[in-house]
Design a protein that fits this description.
It is built from 3 helices and 9 strands; from the N terminus they run E-E-E-E-E-H-H-E-E-E-E-H. It is flat and about 45 Å long.
Length: 187
């Protein structure tokens, strides 16, 4: 006989009443150390919601920016020519990716940029509008892959691919706080 107790969001823990009873099947479960030497199973609750269930290829997003002096290469430290800086173009790309998927994620989840393969092949002067457009091309586990195109008012200025990872914000924050504590312990 197995007794189930709520563990963490989306999971319950099953304790085996007879510790010598064999576990015949462990579908969608994993054995974890129990309490008082009693084996336990960590089991997903009925119909768990995946963080990417609502995401699919074909989703699109866009973001725009009118280039100001604060968006130029000298201002962000990426060059000396007063045109749109590549790091700012990347920021517009990430904003477009957020527009495509962020509103579809379950509460308590968000996406973080993890990979960029971007070309920036034409300059855009101050005062001109740039627009990044992205399309989801693949969703694999928690990873979302995008195709990217960036244009100014005259011509294409960039293209490439972008990946984002969907994370549980509470768990992510715990990891970050561990690092913050590590940094603070140095001083």
């Amino acid at each position: 006989m197995i007794f189930f107790v709520a563990a963490r969001p989306g999971f319950s823990v099953g304790f085996i009443a007879d510790s010598f009873a064999p576990i015949i099947s462990e579908p969608r479960s994993s054995r974890v150390p129990g309490i008082f030497g009693i084996p336990a199973l960590l089991c997903p609750l009925e119909n768990p919601v995946s963080s990417t269930d609502n995401l699919r290829p074909g989703l699109k997003g866009a973001a725009e920016l009118v280039v100001g002096e604060e968006h130029t290469a000298p201002r962000v430290g990426s060059g000396r020519v007063h045109v749109l800086a590549t790091p700012v173009m990347i920021n517009v790309i990430e904003a477009a990716a957020l527009a495509a998927i962020e509103h579809l994620l379950p509460e308590g989840h968000q996406s973080l940029g993890t990979r960029l393969d971007i070309r920036h092949f034409a300059a855009t002067p101050v005062g001109m509008r740039v627009r990044a457009q992205v399309e989801v091309v693949k969703v694999e586990g928690r990873t979302v892959s995008f195709r990217v195109a960036v244009n100014d008012e005259k011509e294409p200025i960039g293209d490439g691919t972008h990946e984002r990872m969907v994370v549980n914000v509470a768990r992510f924050d715990v990891r970050v706080q561990d690092k913050v504590a590590m940094v603070r312990s140095r001083t």
